[in-house]
Structure formats: structure tokens, C-alpha cells
Amino acid sequence: MTPSQITLGAINLEARNPADLVAFWAQVTGAEPAAGGDSYYLPPNGPSGFGMFFQPESEPRAARQMAHWDLTVPWGSRAAEVERLISLGATHKWDVLEEVAHVRWTTLADPEGNLFCIAEHPPLDQQR
Predict the structure, then answer these.
(1) Three-class DSSP category at 53
(2) What single-letter DSSP state applies at residue 127?
(3) What positions does the domain VOC occupy (predicted)?
């Protein structure tokens, strides 16, 4: 069987205010957004980055978010990154720091309430 060539092209989000939400995520990722009518594209910031599309809501937001994304930062930098993102407008939801040996994460919400995690993986010799 040939290995898959599938990669993540972009995360697509509907937003109450796409311009404000793309501005938040542009600060998070360091990428420059591009407008196209009332929608916005945020390209990947580098070869291991991810793209994002923001478009106006087509109907009211669901009460429960069915999926979220996990963003990874280098070991030892999670707390500083979380503080940076909170200063940009993210909301702290909860931390999972001791429950799993191979990962620690903080769950945040962006300004429109979309959940995402900032995770760090300890080196193998520091896993319990």
C-alpha cells in the first residue's frame, strides 16, 4: 500500500465577525490574512503551519463544539504561550498537566468561543 499524501490544508470556521476572528488568529500564528469579499484566508506560517478560512455564519452556532484543534509548542513553553494568547483575547478553560505522561495541555477558547488546546510533550526521559 502506498503511504498517504494527505495533509491538513486549512481549518474552516464560520464566525459572527470574520474580520475580528481572523485578526485574532493572525496574531496567534504570525501569518498575514487575505480578504476575499466577506471571507478571509489565513495562510500557513511556514512549512509545518496550517491555513484557516473564516466566513460569515450561515446559521446560529451549535451549543456544543464537535471538534477542536490541538496546537503543539516546544517543551517548557506552554505556560508562556498560554499567557500570550490570553493577552490577545483567548479565554482560559482548563489545564491537564499531570493526568497523561506524554503530554500536558491547556484548553483555551478564541474570542468567539471556539475551543483549542496548547500542548507540550516532555522529552522521553522526563515522562513518568
Answers:
(1) strand
(2) -
(3) 7-121
- Residue 109 has a pLDDT of 96
SS3 126: helix
Residue pair 124/104 in contact (Cβ under 8 Å)? The answer is no
H-assigned helices in the chain: 18-29, 78-88
Grid cell of 28 as nine digits: 496567534
Does 24 or 9 have the greater pLDDT score?
A: 24
Beta bridge partners of 127: none
* Residue 69: Cβ within 10 Å count: 12
Full-model pTM: 0.88
Residue 65 near residue 117 (C-beta atoms within 8 A): no
What angle (nearest 5°) sits at the alpha carbon of residue 117, between those of residues 112 and 123?
A: 165
